[in-house]
Amino acid sequence: MKQAYLTLLAYPIILITIIFISNKLGLVDKPSSRRIHPKSIVNTSGVALYVFLFFIVLTNEFSYELESVVAIGLFVILIGFIDDRIDLTPGIKLFFKSIAVVYLIFNGFNLEDLGNYEFFQTINLGKFAFVFTFLAALLLMNAFNYIDGIDGLLFGTTITALLYFIFLTNDSSNYINLFLYLLYALLVNLFFNMLPTRSKFKCFSGNAGSLFLGFFISFSIIFLYKKHNIHPAFLIWSCWYSVYDFIYVTFIRIIKQKKFTKADKTHFHHQVLKYFNNNQIKSSIIINILNICIIGTGYCIAAYIGKIFSLFFFIILFFIFILTRKKLFQSTQNY
């Protein structure tokens, strides 16, 4: 018990140390036309989180599969950290992210099917298993990177996803402890992330943090389905918001003949932020509450109505999401 307390105490020390070093070395996110912060902010809290998680995995016994996700996640952290410094080309980033994803796919994380549903037999992926798993993992990694645009949103949605995973497992398996350690680190990061801009301790996750969290959540979903038989009809709701926003923004950029890899302010959180007169705290709270409500609704449909209805609702809700965005866009044009 004493060791556990010392471990928990270690993370704020690690984070504060990395913030101090980052300030000294100029490892910051500078203001720009697409940024909403008025001054340079340290963007290495994702690195601190990974250092802590890696240390936890080295000194404790969890699930081998999730330990592998953390270990190979070093590739994701490094490419994200470098990208925060010199803006790597999409091709280079894709290459290094693919190394981590392909390694895990060939080491037990390949999705052969999408579960068994009422009125249907198991949806087998067959020859498309590798391609589907590869694309799904990359999509979710980039989707989490997309939602990292206002204070508290990335950490809030990831915290909710982890709590949902813990709720779904409903057992005392040792891997739950890894989720709890990550949950604790995210809460600490959330506190520092929500500090006023003038604070020297305010920090962002950076691309390293957002890509790694997307990477960890995506393979946690596969792990929970393959190793603990938690149906995808439940698991998909943990990432509905990030997936919807990614698909919508990417599609709009392609329609408008823009580079879909180039950052802009077309995300849902930017529209909400504008609606609330650039109040980041209020915008983040509203989206996080919406996220919790949708996850709860999706769970209830899967648990009490049927898994196939959960899947249908997931698709229908996407179109509702699109209509909501259009209404929100129209209303913000009057400001």
Describe the structure in your own words:
The model has no long low-confidence stretch (mean pLDDT 89). This protein has 13 helices and 2 strands; from the N terminus they run αββαααααααααααα. Helices cover 71% and strands 1% of the residues. It has helices at residues 2-25, 45-59, 64-86, 90-109, 129-146, 153-169, 175-193, 206-228, 232-235, 240-255, 268-275, 280-305, 307-332; strands at 28-29, 41-42. Helix 6 packs parallel to helix 8.
Number of strands: 2
Low-confidence stretches: none
**What percent of the residues sit in helical stretches (DSSP H or I)?**
over 70%
The outline comes out as globular
Output mean pLDDT: 89
As a whole number of angstroms, the C-alpha radius of gyration is 19 Å
The major β-sheet equals: 2 strands, antiparallel
Determine the N-to-C terminus distance.
54 Å
Structural class: mainly alpha
How large is the share of residues in beta strands? under 5%
- Number of DSSP helical runs: 13
Topology as H/E string? HEEHHHHHHHHHHHH
Sequence of strands across the biggest β-sheet: 1-2
Q: Which SSEs are present, and which pair or pack?
A:
Layout: H1 2-25, E1 28-29, E2 41-42, H2 45-59, H3 64-86, H4 90-109, H5 129-146, H6 153-169, H7 175-193, H8 206-228, H9 232-235, H10 240-255, H11 268-275, H12 280-305, H13 307-332
Antiparallel strand pairs: 1-2
Key descriptive features of the protein:
335 residues, 71% helix, mainly alpha, two-stranded antiparallel ribbon
Can you give me a brief rundown of this structure?
The protein has 335 residues and is mainly alpha-helical.
